[in-house]
Write a structure and sequence with these properties.
The complex is a heterotrimer of chains A (299), B (656) and C (420).
Chain A lengths: L2 H32 L6 H20 L4 H33 L4 H21 L14 E4 L2 E4 H23 L1 H11 L1 H6 L4 H27 L7 H14 L6 H19 L7 H13 L14
Antiparallel strand pairs in A: 1-2
Helix pairs in contact in A: 1-5, 1-6, 1-8, 1-9, 1-10, 2-3, 2-4, 2-8, 3-4, 3-8, 5-6, 5-8, 6-8, 9-10
Chain B lengths: L1 H23 L3 H26 L7 H17 L5 H23 L4 H21 L1 H4 L5 E2 L12 H23 L2 H11 L1 H6 L4 H27 L1 E2 L6 H14 L4 H18 L2 H25 L4 H20 L7 H15 L3 H13 L13 H4 L9 E12 L2 E12 L3 E5 L6 H8 L7 E6 L2 E2 L5 H6 L2 E3 L12 H8 L8 H5 L4 H18 L14 H13 L5 E5 L7 H16 L3 E5 L3 H7 L2 E6 L2 E6 L1 H6 L1 H8 L22
Parallel strand pairs in B: 5-10, 5-11, 8-9, 9-10
Antiparallel strand pairs in B: 1-2, 3-4, 3-6, 6-7, 11-12
Chain C lengths: L1 H17 L3 E8 L6 H20 L3 E3 L2 E11 L4 H12 L4 E6 L3 H14 L3 E3 L6 H8 L7 E3 L4 H14 L4 E7 L2 H16 L5 E8 L7 H9 L4 E5 L3 H12 L6 E3 L6 H7 L7 E4 L8 H14 L7 H21 L4 H9 L5 E2 L4 E2 L23 E6 L2 E4 L2 H12 L4 H10 L1
The chains are: A mainly alpha (299), B alpha/beta (656), C alpha/beta (420).
Chain lengths: 299, 656, 420
């Protein structure tokens, strides 16, 4: 074993981990306001990626790749946000009003619908996603990375930074924080919790869409593209803690690196095992997550 | 009796029809479907224990199907043993693994629990795939059905075997779930804290529920392996798990019939969808039903508009789509999703939940009669009260970080007294109670009951030691009836060992439990509402019910945490009356209360806390005039002797 | 309104059922989920053939011309569903035959039900060896299961041969963790031994369906000095391997199973896929008029620019013509007679892959090739070049053009030798 190999593994793993983290961040957004998450988030990632692909191809008939790609991004994000709102309206709101956990099933069901719709609208095959960003490797400190991979890192930090800034600097964002901190108190202050939950699902949808846009030039677009990703993202969100903020970035990168190293040193078939064991352990020892806030049981 | 006849009759009829089908229709395909239906029935009954009764989204059941299947398969192929040992091994392995998995999952709820089980499922799939030398890995494991008594079962015979297992599981589970075990599972779902505080033991029941459900999964897995004759790790993945989960919900949670309906849907629906005309007919029917149910709900105002309209829209999409899409096979998942959506939104209790109510009305099935209440003296014998110290707090401390919520507190509660514990908000009253009852572990000091140290930091063990409590924020078991809420907590009634319970031989003690619980409900004036779900009771009644439930523990010490909080005036009066009645039976009570008039009327002694310390002790009248008390409540020293604090509002907000 | 619709549809179905006189052929396979591209391609190829036959009036069965009626079943690549579907089909008394199945596991779980009742099935395009060897292992005397796919044995032999011909000595064997990948690995290792251990396997690496990052596997292969990667897997993960190679600057070419010709590999690997080699039974190049008609027909009928899996589609198409020829020769829709006819097809059948001359022979448990249609002759090495699969060497193109138009005599002789 040498340092270059470990470095290469670490970088590849960490970049994959950032994608997990971004999707996990989408979970956090909705959990903060409503204590619910979209179990069909993976389908949202996939659906938005397909839609963005269609937008790009549409753009290609008029403009060059660069411009189409740039114009597609806001369209894709908007679509993701819209789908997030659909999930909220159809799957979450009623369950929240009834204070039941019905949202778990409903979001799974809506995801199933999205999956089937995508299969039939866009086909069952995996397709490449055109991108103006080069996939040629650049050699940094003995490690190969592609610009495409770096663009993932940039995109992840950009959107997370923007949303955090939005939460802290704008009135709407502060309402979001207020509902997250104490829903009842926020409602007494005249903040509509329902609207804030809608906002959080919209944002979460946009985050999912960005994850799809960022990852699909690397992994291709297909109906099943997110099914493996989503389980990892889910683990990252829970291990970090569903209210851990940037904790997901650390845990995501850690998990990515761990997977890479495990498949190198243990055997490629066992790639996921250390992560899963770690997950069960982390949950057993710290149910609220490594970076989550421990709560005092009150009765 | 008529009810019992009806219910058992329906079960018998269903199994008789299922059993007779192979005699009437000699169709291999129908047999294959029925066999699978029986196997999935067992699997879903197992899953329902955790999903329905424990109320947790369990994503590990598919793994137990796989593990059970492989266990059976390996016993047959590697050890050359027969069907009996194979099925036994499958069940036993999953029983143990399920119990083990419950250990880390014990502290988890909601999404965390779902994830822990999901990880387990992924881990077991990885292991089955990677342990190639043992399981054959991805190449799969082929299993030839071993003979029984030198004779290979024919397809109908194997089906009957599966059906017999389903019937057996059905019977055992029916008995178990109708017993204290079933109630304990449900109690756990609604409030783990209260379950512990009622001495039921979340730990034991959660592990038991999980092991049981998983064991059934293993049994189903063993049968599955024998039926299919070929196993591959990939057959036990996330997608299949979702199907199982949806099957339980669609059929109806907490219902054996629901599990059977769910299994039928899982097995039959794909076949239904492959025939376009049949699909159109069914979706039209479904849409009409959704429309009728929705309109009815809207007119009667029993459902929200969304709940009434969304299923109609979903089914409408199905019907319209059906005419445009020539190949329904391609859209199978979307169709499945739309149907499920309609059911989950429109019929949250599932198909069976909806049908049960409907059928009960249609056939006028009477409700099971309740026994006469027991004599209260046998349920709650009068305690001798001698005024000796019952509970002693000795330099008790509890810190939260730097906050000293309870700061070196010592006090004594005398046997047979009602001891008031008052103080402004944040003075540490609730923390004291939570430390005594075992919710919090003290940072220092001791708690003595009858001169013996109470266990620390365990609600369960404190409850077993003779302390019962109510909760400031109600912790009732909302989905259970008032009667069942009390029955769950009953002490010294359930003695039958598990095998007897499973065989349905614990009925007499169940009757006695009902009678005892009724006596307690009578004491608090809720006997007429025994069958109402706790969540449907009025707020006042819920407060009373908490007391009845605590009394079922036959406690030496009863802690009432703000029993009159939020009650309307008439209810406050009734609550006072109830507490007096309880007191008459010689039970020592610690009363935390804001209403000074309640305190004055009831308490023999009062301890006043502020900042986690005792600032005054004595009779209610003494305490009321105590200068420190007045200062604590009013925020300033009294100006004259006659300044009396509020007697109605208690810890009123500080004057502006 | 709804009642009317329901009523109408029931009426329609009743009428449809009365239609009666048809040749019923079932098409099965995974039409949704991960292996759907192959399943749907095979299905659609088959449907194209059926549409052609029906447009020409149907199959001449005895005195009548009967149209083909399709029964379509999605096995979702699930063994359990496959078994149920097989049971359903086995219970249909008037079924003439079954064509389909992609996943070897589904074959193992389901085909026994068909075989027990003697329903004729042509497996297409599943290639896992176990789907046929299970019958020889069980010592079945009379087998109604045929296969119409280049089986892994042929393919693995060609892959290893190609690696040796190209003067590689150190190779990495990479495979997916499914049945398909693992049995491919076994076949390749077996062939390396059989062909004289001229290749050293320096690394054996596995990947899971859905894996996106193959850096670990490739680094191990690279540091072990692999010059070529012998690969067995399905779908976009293969592309992830090619792209991963480009990223870490590895230049070992991929040589592997025919799935490397699927669009989800070629498209997604882009220029990184150039030079990848795989055995092919059909190449989406209009080398013959028949091939051109097929490719155009497929594109037009199913509104695609390219066939997701040309090999699967062409095999599905040819399988239908074989089945139709058998029905015609049997002069009956009875599946047992169709089986007899299929084992002894007298007239050559013109397909898009080849002209099939006596493709099957009477089942011999000791020799699964009696029920295998494909021989080395129908298989060539394809190579990815700028987003298309082209012939790996030009001699093959000529040979295949000939074999598509004139019957290959080898099989007929062999069958005759047996009967003599």
């Amino acid at each position: 074993m040498n340092a270059a190999i470990i470095g290469q593994m670490a970088i590849s793993g960490a970049l994959m981990g950032l994608v997990y983290a971004l999707i996990a961040y989408g979970f956090q957004l909705t959990y903060a306001t409503s204590k619910s998450i979209n179990f069909g988030q993976g389908e949202l990632v996939m659906l938005s990626a397909f839609f963005s692909l269609t937008l790009t191809n549409l753009g290609l008939t008029h403009w060059g790749l660069g411009l189409s790609y740039a114009l597609m991004i806001p369209g894709g994000l908007l679509f993701g946000a819209l789908m997030g709102l659909v999930v909220e309206r159809a799957g979450v709101r009623l369950a929240l009003e009834q204070k039941s956990e019905g949202w778990i099933l409903l979001t799974i069901i809506i995801g199933l619908f999205f999956f089937s719709a995508a299969e039939n609208i866009w086909g069952r095959d995996d397709r490449p996603f055109p991108t103006p960003i080069s996939a040629d490797p650049i050699h940094v400190l003995g490690v190969d990375v592609t610009r495409l991979e770096l663009s993932v890192a940039v995109g992840v930090f950009a959107i997370m930074g923007l949303i955090e800034l939005f939460k802290r600097r704008t009135l709407l964002g502060k309402a979001f924080e207020a509902v997250a901190a104490d829903r009842d108190a926020a409602e007494l202050m005249g903040i509509s919790a329902t609207r804030t939950v809608m906002l959080s699902y919209g944002l979460s949808g946009a985050v999912a869409a960005l994850a799809g846009i960022l990852v699909s030039p690397i992994t291709t677009v297909g109906p099943t593209m997110a099914s493996a990703l989503i389980l990892k993202a889910f683990s990252v969100a829970v291990v970090a803690g569903l209210d851990s903020g940037f904790g997901v970035v650390l845990v995501g990168m850690f998990l990515g690196v761990l997977e890479s190293l495990a498949s190198y040193y243990v055997g490629s078939g066992w790639r996921e095992a250390p992560g899963l064991i770690l997950l069960i352990l982390a949950l057993a020892l710290r149910p609220t997550g490594v970076f989550g806030k421990a709560t005092i049981r009150k009765v | 009796m008529r009810r019992l006849l009806f219910l058992r009759g329906a079960e018998l009829l269903a199994f008789a029809v299922l059993g007779a089908i192979p005699l009437l229709v000699l169709n291999e395909y129908a047999l294959g479907l029925l066999t699978l239906l029986s196997i999935y029935g067992i699997l879903l009954i197992g899953l329902d224990v955790t999903v329905g009764y424990l109320g947790q989204v369990n994503l590990a059941q598919i793994a137990f199907l796989g593990l059970g299947g492989y266990a059976a398969g390996l016993v047959i192929t590697r050890l050359g043993m027969g069907m009996g040992p194979a099925l036994l091994a499958a069940t036993a392995l999953c029983l143990v693994l399920g119990g083990l998995l419950a250990l880390p999952a014990l502290r988890l709820e909601g999404p965390q629990f779902a994830l822990a089980t999901l990880s387990f499922a992924a881990l077991s799939a990885t292991a089955l795939n990677e342990l190639e030398s043992l399981t054959g890995g991805a190449q799969g494991l082929s299993i030839a059905q071993p003979p029984i008594f030198g004779h290979i079962l024919t397809k109908p015979q194997f089906y009957w075997l599966c059906l017999a297992f389903l019937a057996l599981v059905w019977m055992l589970m029916r008995n178990l779930l109708a017993s204290q075990w079933g109630r304990a599972f449900e109690a756990l779902r609604d409030s783990p804290i209260a379950t512990d505080a009622m001495g039921v033991g979340t730990y034991r029941h959660k592990v038991a529920a999980f092991a049981l459900g998983s064991g059934l999964g293993g049994l189903a897995g063993g049968l599955y392996a024998l039926n299919l004759g070929y196993l591959q790790p990939q057959s036990f993945g996330y997608e299949q798990m979702i199907t199982l989960l949806l099957g339980v919900v669609l059929g109806g949670r907490k219902s054996l019939w629901g599990a059977l309906v769910g299994a039928s849907v899982i097995v039959l629906l794909p076949n239904l969808l492959s025939k376009h005309d049949l699909f159109l007919a069914f979706s039209g029917l479904g849409c009409a039903m959704a429309l009728a149910a929705g309109l009815r709900g809207l007119v009667k105002k029993t459902t929200r508009p969304f709940q009434a309209l969304a299923p109609v829209v979903a089914m409408g999409i199905l019907v319209v789509g059906g005419f445009f899409v020539p190949n329904t096979e391609d859209w199978r998942k979307a169709i499945f999703a739309l149907m499920l959506f309609s059911v989950v939104v429109g019929l949250p209790e599932g198909l069976m939940g909806f049908l049960t109510g409907f059928l009960a009305k249609l056939f006028r099935v009477p409700e099971a009669p309740l026994p006469e209440p027991s004599d209260l003296n046998s349920v709650l014998p009068t305690h001798p009260a001698d005024g000796s110290p019952l509970l002693v707090l000795d330099h008790l401390k509890r810190y939260f970080g730097g906050v000293k919520a309870v700061d070196d507190l010592s006090m004594t509660v005398c046997s047979g007294s009602i001891h008031g514990l008052i103080g402004p908000n944040g003075s540490g009253k609730s923390t004291v109670v939570n430390v005594i009852s075992g919710l919090y572990t003290p940072s220092g000091g001791r708690v003595l009951l009858h001169g013996q140290e109470l266990p620390q930091g365990s609600l369960f063990r404190v409850a077993r030691a003779g302390v019962a409590r109510t909760f400031q924020n109600l912790q009732l078991f909302g989905e259970l009836t008032a009667l069942e809420n009390v029955m769950v907590a009953l002490k010294d009634v359930y003695r039958s060992p598990l095998p007897l319970v499973l065989l349905g031989l614990a009925r007499p003690e169940e009757r006695r439990a009902q009678a005892d619980a009724l006596a307690l409900l009578e004491l608090i004036g809720l006997k007429d509402q025994a069958r109402a779900k706790a969540k449907d009771l009025t707020y006042g009644a819920q407060r009373f019910l908490e007391i009845a439930r605590a009394l079922a523990r036959k406690p030496d010490l009863l802690i009432l945490d703000e029993p009159a909080a939020g009650l309307a005036h008439p209810d406050v009066l009734q609550q006072i009356e109830i507490i007096k009645r309880v007191h008459q039976r010689g039970i020592t009570i610690i009363l935390i209360e804001h209403h000074m008039d309640v305190v004055s009327e009831l308490c023999d002694a009062v301890t006043v806390l502020d900042g986690g310390k005792v600032i005054a002790e004595g009779t209610p009248d003494e305490v009321k005039r105590h200068p420190k008390v007045v200062e604590a409540y009013l925020g300033q020293p009294p100006e004259t002797d006659s300044a009396t604090p509020h007697t109605d509002g208690g810890a009123a907000p500080l004057p502006a | 309104m709804f009642k009317q619709l329901v009523h109408g549809s029931l009426l329609l179905s009743a009428l449809g059922l009365q239609g009666g006189d048809t040749v019923k052929i079932a098409l099965t396979g995974p039409f949704s989920g991960g292996s759907a591209p192959m399943g749907t391609s095979a299905r659609d190829g088959a449907k194209l053939a059926i549409a052609e036959i029906n447009a020409a009036g149907g199959i001449q069965v005895g005195a009548k011309k009967l149209k083909i009626e399709v029964i379509e079943r999605d096995d979702e690549a699930k063994n359990e569903r496959g078994a149920l579907i097989a049971q359903e089909l086995a219970a249909m008394s008037d079924l003439s035959g079954v064509i389909g199945t992609v996943n070897t596991g589904v074959c193992i779980a389901g085909d026994k039900h068909l075989q027990e009742t003697g329903i004729t099935k042509i497996i297409c395009p599943a290639a896992g060896s176990a789907s046929m060897t299970q019958w020889s292992k069980a010592g079945v005397k009379d087998n109604s299961i045929f296969r119409f796919a280049a089986h892994d044995g042929i393919q693995a032999a060609m892959v290893v041969e190609e690696a040796i011909n190209r003067k590689f000595t150190k190779v990495a064997v990479v495979f997916d963790s499914t049945n398909y990948g693992v049995s491919g690995r076994d076949d390749m290792l077996d062939q390396i031994k059989k062909q004289g251990n001229k290749l050293t396997v320096v690394a054996q690496e596995k990947f899971n369906i859905g894996d996106k990052d193959m850096t670990a596997q490739l680094l191990r292969a690279k540091s072990a000095g692999a010059e070529a990667i012998l690969i067995w897997g399905i779908g976009p993960e293969l592309a992830a391997i090619s792209n991963g190679e480009a990223k870490i600057g590895m230049k070992a070419p991929l040589i592997g199973g025919w799935t490397l010709s699927m669009s989800n590999y070629i498209d997604n690997a882009g220029k990184n896929g150039n030079g990848t080699l795989m055995p092919q039974t059909f190449i989406e190049e209009p080398i013959t008029p028949k091939a051109k008609a097929f490719i155009d027909g497929y594109h037009k009928t199913f509104k695609v620019g390219r066939i997701p899996s040309p090999v699967a589609a062409a095999q599905g198409y040819d399988a239908v013509y074989l089945m139709a020829a058998a029905v015609k020769q049997a002069g009956s829709t009875d599946t047992h007679k169709v089986k007899e006819a299929l084992e002894d097809l007298k007239e050559p059948v013109k397909g898009v892959i080849a002209t099939w001359n006596h493709p099957y022979a009477k089942w011999d448990p000791a020799d699964v090739t009696t029920h295998e249609a494909f021989r080395r002759e129908q298989t060539v090495m394809g190579m990815v070049k700028d987003g298309h699969v082209v012939f790996g060497n030009d001699a093959d193109r000529e040979r295949l053009r000939k074999s598509a138009t004139t019957a290959t005599p080898a099989k007929l002789n062999k069958a005759k030798a047996k009967t003599k």
